[in-house]
Design a protein that fits this description.
about 100 residues; two-stranded antiparallel sheet; 2 strands; about 50% helix; about 5% strand; globular; MAIN-like; AminoTfrase-like_pln_mobile; Aminotransferase-like plant mobile domain-containing protein
């Protein structure tokens, strides 16, 4: 399931000045979700935010316990493997990791 990036960006762009702690947590989750979908686990759907990462953001306390580096490397290898198919025209994935 995905959500349009422009809607997501418009909805969570500016944190209200009088935001409660719960609202701040919601905006933090939204920001992290956008980073995961658009930077770390990027694919060809650059205009969409994938909600598949949402369960991992349920508890912000547990977020640091996940091995995000290993997951990003596995995602990069998966995208590179897909890129070896002769029918593939564009390469997708976190290519900034490949460059470094």
């Amino acid at each position: 399931m995905t959500v349009c990036y422009t809607w997501f960006h418009e909805r969570f762009r500016v944190l209200p000045a009088d935001a409660s702690e719960e609202t701040v947590c919601i905006y933090v989750r939204a920001y992290i979700l956008m980073l995961l979908s658009s930077q770390l686990f990027e694919d060809k759907n650059a205009n969409w935010v994938h909600l598949r990462w949402l369960p991992y953001l349920a508890s912000l306390d547990k977020l640091g316990r996940y091995s995000w580096g290993s997951a990003a490397l596995a995602w990069l290898y998966r995208c590179l493997c897909r890129g070896t198919n002769k029918n593939v025209v564009n390469l997708a994935g976190p290519l900034q990791l490949l460059q470094s």
